[in-house]
């Protein structure tokens, strides 16, 4: 009788705990499973469910230990084994996770979720072909499995197989046409194909379905800005804080929403990368002319240049962005990226754009020019890589890819690239006899003041989309910018314009497809040869 009552109690508690799980009440379910574990310490279902809940609640290691104990009791539990693999996937133990997914699939060859999650593990391991096969198997077993279809589309997009990505997203939208996430991801693919109208339609539709969708709002902003629809773009640019996980200033002081204030102290603070800080600094002269006092918080490497460049303004102080500032020092604050919505709302507004607004150290520049005094060749500063973790590889070149330019006669090339370039330059010299000269006294990464003088001492600059491009453009130096076709191209390099609105001294040379740098390099060579003719 006691055994029967115990059995009924266990059954009742299991039903109750599972009901809690179905309602998302995991803490309540956990308490019941812990009570069950005291009654039946080696019950496989209790151990598995308790472990799964622990993983759900974030205690992954503890959850894994419970499920492993369950499998020790009963090795023929494909669902438990798959849940264990899911926990290992969460803590990035991908190889071990694969072993358990394979074991689960051996026990149940039709286990759809195991194929799906195994594909995710394979993707993390960059085993893309195997990942695709496992996504496809999951979809074959369940043609309505939209999660697998969307993830397969996402993988194809990362691999730049855009037609295949579109096919998957269209399939997913046939299953659920109201998925804001799928519309957003399809919009990314259209944007990567430079089909901007279709991309914008998808972003707008996603926002209609989910008005608080930060990624869709931000991508719409960037697309509008790249199309030079500035007023519309700035409206949605505020979504960058959530979409890009940027750190917003922690302060009780209000953000400046209108420049129609007087005799106030305004903190303008840096955000995003140093390139963005330089870009939006073109608008500082217009900001500083109003009757207020300013504190500009910027990357410390820019301070000496900015002090020289804006010395005619007595109402501004420059501090490092690392410096902690007491709130009593200012009345309002303004992220530097918000300057755009005040001063650049149309192409017409760019008539006020200065040719140059940063000023190099003349004495330093003259000293550097003496280094090249014996050269009868043109001096070309060159930078070819971006260190941006997200899109850097898509907008970077190798020196070997630049060989058609580097082989041109009558040019000496000066290294403006930040980071360690010694091995790549040595390899170029050993194989081709081409020297990229290093100016040892300038630290291209830490000494931006020295780098700006070095840039000025060059006749012209050739660069990929990186900090060097921003510095060169802000100095008004003649610059040839090599930009990617779509992936990696940043909004301020425009879509249909070959001379930058933001930096009038920069000419833009774009890829004609995502896979080749041939066209921009050949176009630069053609223009350089024309430039030689006019100079000589």
UniProtKB/TrEMBL annotation:
S-adenosyl-L-methionine listed as a keyword: no
Keyword annotations: Repeat, TPR repeat
Coiled coil: none
SMART domains xrefs: TPR (SM00028)
TPR repeats: 44-77, 78-111, 112-145, 146-179, 180-213
InterPro entries for the chain: TPR-like_helical_dom_sf, TPR_rpt, Ycf3/AcsC/BcsC/TPR_MFPF
SUPFAM superfamilies the record matches: TPR-like, UDP-Glycosyltransferase/glycogen phosphorylase
Protein name, entry field: Tetratricopeptide repeat protein
Organism of origin: Candidatus Methylopumilus rimovensis
High-level lineage: Bacteria, Pseudomonadati, Pseudomonadota, Betaproteobacteria, Nitrosomonadales
